[in-house]
């Protein structure tokens, strides 16, 4: 009876979390509502089973997250609007997506279905984005998106902005392609075809956003994936990707023109929306507030106060259009160091895991997908505050869970050769499972 009750709680948790990751592909309201419920269920399970999600195997990740959040709180308290800043900080709860995902990914039956739920959502709304480009269909608005340079429309899916859609689907595309290509020998033919198709659809949808940051992140991360897979695979991946991109660019030359036009303004220190202009003035905020920053929600006021008066234009940035600089502006240089520490810990865990596992097996594919998906996201965040964009950030937390779960549960993954740790109950099999402690 006890086992059946716990199994039911786990099934409910799985359903809610799967709804979250599926919903994240098109609706932040659905996704965060579903995750809020799944987090409550997870806490019930953790208390009931005395389950500790913060084992030492992931200590560097959780330590970095803890230091980052602690310093953000201190920065908020030291700013001009501490109460408002602390309220804005509520989005940091999205870090909880990782331990819940790690817990569910350890169970094979849940693991496959979670990846399927994500892939189905990405596939459906990548197709919707492609359809939107050609027809202007926009389910959430009465008016179509902005016209594209060639013909059709600039894709933003059901998200509020094309950059949000582009950064989300660039990351999702690389994640899907990494799952398929790095686990090629261990997947069925239909499985490979499905994940490859979803990945390529996401690539095409990303290109139709005409977002230079997302397209550049997509291209560089794809090249890195080829390096991960070896010379022969790199030739196949690079050749296929080049063929797809070249065909799209020939068919839609406005993509190149749009990127070139926007790149020219990025280097203009007199253009109020150019990246160099925004970064330069954001660094002035950091220079004035190097330790604690200005606190959450205070970037805009500080930016307006410090921007040069002789620059034409009245548009002011609400963030630094770069995650590291943005964090430094609102939480000081220590906050930026802790923020980058989170990234280093995730990438190191995934890299080390991949080096120890079979790179051609399913075990290795999760590490590769976590690494490549993270790199794609981070590349996009160099020129855009992607981490501050909740739609994309919540998906990144799932990508991290996929990349990190085997570090926490090495004995449930093939090829894992880490030392065993504390014993907990695997509710899928009713057997003991050892954690890396």
Shape: globular
Number of helices: 16
Derived structural class: mainly alpha
Low-confidence stretches: 414-437
Distance between the termini: 30 Å
Looking across the biggest beta sheet, what order are the strands in? 1-2
Report the order of strands and helices. HHHHHHHHHHHHHHHHEE
Query: What would you report as the Rg, rounded to the nearest angstrom?
Result: 22 Å
Helical content (DSSP H or I, runs of 4+): 55-70%
Number of strands: 2
Mean pLDDT: 85
> How many strands, which pairing sense, and closed or not: the largest β-sheet?
2 strands, antiparallel
- Beta-strand content bin: under 5%
Question: Care to describe what's here?
Answer:
The protein is mostly helical and 437 residues long. It has helices spanning 2-23, 28-49, 59-78, 82-88, 97-105, 108-135, 162-182, 189-207, 212-229, 231-251, 254-266, 275-288, 299-306, 323-356, 362-382, 390-408; strands spanning 423-426, 431-434. The protein has a two-stranded antiparallel ribbon with strand order 1-2. A hairpin with a 4-residue loop joins strand 1 (423-426) and strand 2. The chain is globular.
Protein topology:
Blueprint: H1 2-23, H2 28-49, H3 59-78, H4 82-88, H5 97-105, H6 108-135, H7 162-182, H8 189-207, H9 212-229, H10 231-251, H11 254-266, H12 275-288, H13 299-306, H14 323-356, H15 362-382, H16 390-408, E1 423-426, E2 431-434
Antiparallel strand pairs: 1-2
Helix pairs in contact: 1-2, 1-6, 3-4, 3-14, 5-16, 6-8, 7-8, 7-9, 7-15, 7-16, 9-10, 9-15, 12-13, 12-14, 14-15, 14-16, 15-16
């Amino acid at each position: 009876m006890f086992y059946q009750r716990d199994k039911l709680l786990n099934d409910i948790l799985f359903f809610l979390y799967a709804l979250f990751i599926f919903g994240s592909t098109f609706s932040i309201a659905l996704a965060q509502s579903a995750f809020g419920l799944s987090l409550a269920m997870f806490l019930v399970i953790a208390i009931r089973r005395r389950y500790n999600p913060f084992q030492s195997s992931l200590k560097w990740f959780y330590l970095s997250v803890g230091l980052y959040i602690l310093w953000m709180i201190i920065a908020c308290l030291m700013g001009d609007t501490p109460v408002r800043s602390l309220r804005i900080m509520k989005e940091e709860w999205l870090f909880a997506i990782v331990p819940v995902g790690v817990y569910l990914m350890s169970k094979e039956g849940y693991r496959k279905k979670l990846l399927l739920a994500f892939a189905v959502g990405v596939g459906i709304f990548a197709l919707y984005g492609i359809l939107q480009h050609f027809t202007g269909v926009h389910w959430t608005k009465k008016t179509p998106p902005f016209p594209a340079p060639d013909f059709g429309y600039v894709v933003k899916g059901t998200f509020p902005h094309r950059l949000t859609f582009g950064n989300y689907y660039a990351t999702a595309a690389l994640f899907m392609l990494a799952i398929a290509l790095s686990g090629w020998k261990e997947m069925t033919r239909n499985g490979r075809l499905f994940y490859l198709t979803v990945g390529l659809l996401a690539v095409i949808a990303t290109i139709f956003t005409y977002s230079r940051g997302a397209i550049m992140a997509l291209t560089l991360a794809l090249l890195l994936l080829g390096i991960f897979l070896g010379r022969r695979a790199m030739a196949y991946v690079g050749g296929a990707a080049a063929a797809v991109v070249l065909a799209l660019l020939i068919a839609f030359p406005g993509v190149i023109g749009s990127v070139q036009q926007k790149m020219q303004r990025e280097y203009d220190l007199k253009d109020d929306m150019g990246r160099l202009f925004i970064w330069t003035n954001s660094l002035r905020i950091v220079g004035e507030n190097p330790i604690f920053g200005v606190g959450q929600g205070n970037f805009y006021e500080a930016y307006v106060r410090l921007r040069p008066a002789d620059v034409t234009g009245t548009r002011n940035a609400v963030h630094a259009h770069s995650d590291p600089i943005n964090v430094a502006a609102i939480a000081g240089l220590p906050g930026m160091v802790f923020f980058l520490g989170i990234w280093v810990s995730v990438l190191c865990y995934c890299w080390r895991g991949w080096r120890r596992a079979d790179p051609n097996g399913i075990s290795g594919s999760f590490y590769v997908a976590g690494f490549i998906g993270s790199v794609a996201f981070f590349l996009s965040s160099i020129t855009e505050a992607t981490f501050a964009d909740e739609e994309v950030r919540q998906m990144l937390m799932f990508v991290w869970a996929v990349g990190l779960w085997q570090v926490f549960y090495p004995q449930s993954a093939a090829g894992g050769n880490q030392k065993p740790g504390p014993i907990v109950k695997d509710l899928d099999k009713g057997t003991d499972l050892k954690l890396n402690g």
